[in-house]
Amino acid sequence: MLYIGLDVHHKTTTCCVLDHAGRVTHTRTLRGPWAKTVAFLQTLGNDLAVCFEASVGYGPLYEALASFCRRVEVAHPGHLRLIFRSKQKNDRVDATKLAKLLYLDEVPRVHVPGLDVRAWRELIEFRRRSIDKRTKVKNQLRCLLRAYAISKPREVPGLWTRGGLAWLERVALPTATAQLKRELLLDELTHLKTQINRVTTQLDRIAADHPGVALLMTIPGVGPRTAEAFVAYVDDPHRFEKANRVPSYFGLVPSQDASAGVNRLGHITKRGPATARKLLVEASWQMVRHCPQTRAYFDRLVAGKPERRKIALVAVAHRLVKIMHAMLKSGEVYRPRKQEVMNVK
């Protein structure tokens, strides 16, 4: 078997080939799209093990290589930086390191979901970015009103309701420049609203085909957006050997610095999908409000100290993730533990 490390870029790819004894046979840089790299590797036969670093568009390359290679590994970029802390870095060196890790079977692997799941994740991220854009437009409109000391009258409903937007369209602004800016921002707001509605409709259709989404929505406070994000990013709940690794995947565990009997815990790592983590924290707030058992757990962690509310909320999110993972594995709807019910009573 040949062990091949690929340092992949958009226009060039560097290949390092090791033989069955781990010796470097040759290193080559291929210029052009990934299709040339795939064609070159096909000339080496089918008894190949290939490793490359996860980056934008890694899915199609993985599927193309998996069609003829015996083994394909996708390495985690963050973990690779921890393994190789070297000041000497170039494409040939990186390709060689990947090939050696593959030969030693020490590649920090990442899970490669199917095409449908990757597209689902992309749509979830697109909706989040669209909502962020809408928030910026709303802030710009508020800033425009404040710049000219204009306040919304009490009789006008919320600024982003139909009545509030109608008032915003007809409110008098002192300059033609301000009026033009107001019109352009309102047009952009309307466009973004239509765009978000279309994306949400498509996400609802996708979620309807995944029973895990409806299952997770039986948890008090968990809505369709949180449930679909968790299902999409977990993909296969059985790929986690231990339940404790699921909160770590979503970055909901504290950073740790332990040495010589001293254990220091810091802020959460915030690794993994940021969009899913944000939705999980928001769902945790709703769970605290609507689930008496979770509220009791939250209050017990706060212990009457307001400065501990954020710590307690992260603990609730950590617990929620483990519950959701267990539900996906078992297929059972949410039900609080009997011990929790007794404690609340």
Topology:
Layout: E1 2-8, E2 12-18, E3 24-31, H1 34-42, E4 48-53, H2 58-66, E5 71-75, H3 77-83, H4 91-104, H5 115-147, H6 162-170, H7 176-208, H8 211-216, H9 224-234, H10 245-249, E6 254-259, E7 262-268, H11 274-290, H12 292-302, H13 309-330, H14 338-344
Parallel strand pairs: 1-4, 4-5
Antiparallel strand pairs: 1-2, 2-3, 6-7
Short summary:
The protein is α/β, with parallel strands linked by helices. The protein has helices at 34-42, 58-66, 77-83, 91-104, 115-147, 162-170, 176-208, 211-216, 224-234, 245-249, 274-290, 292-302, 309-330, 338-344, and strands at residues 2-8, 12-18, 24-31, 48-53, 71-75, 254-259, 262-268.
Tell me the number of structural domains: 3
Question: What's the helix count?
Answer: 14
Which H/E pattern describes the elements?
EEEHEHEHHHHHHHHEEHHHH
Write out the strand line-up for the largest beta sheet, numbering strands in chain order.
3-2-1-4-5
Morphology: globular
Helix content: 55-70%
The low-pLDDT segments are 341-345
Query: What average pLDDT do the residues reach?
Result: 91
Strand tally: 7
- What does the main sheet amount to? 5 strands, mixed
Kindly describe this structure.
There is one protein chain. Helices cover 56% and strands 13% of the residues. It is α/β, with parallel strands linked by helices and 345 residues long. The chain folds into 3 domains: 2-104, 2-Layer Sandwich (Nucleotidyltransferase, domain 5), CATH 3.30.420.40; 115-209; 214-344, no CATH class. The chain has a 5-stranded mixed beta sheet. Strands 6-7 form a two-stranded antiparallel sheet. A hairpin with a 3-residue loop joins strand 1 and strand 2 (12-18). Helix 12 runs antiparallel to helix 13.
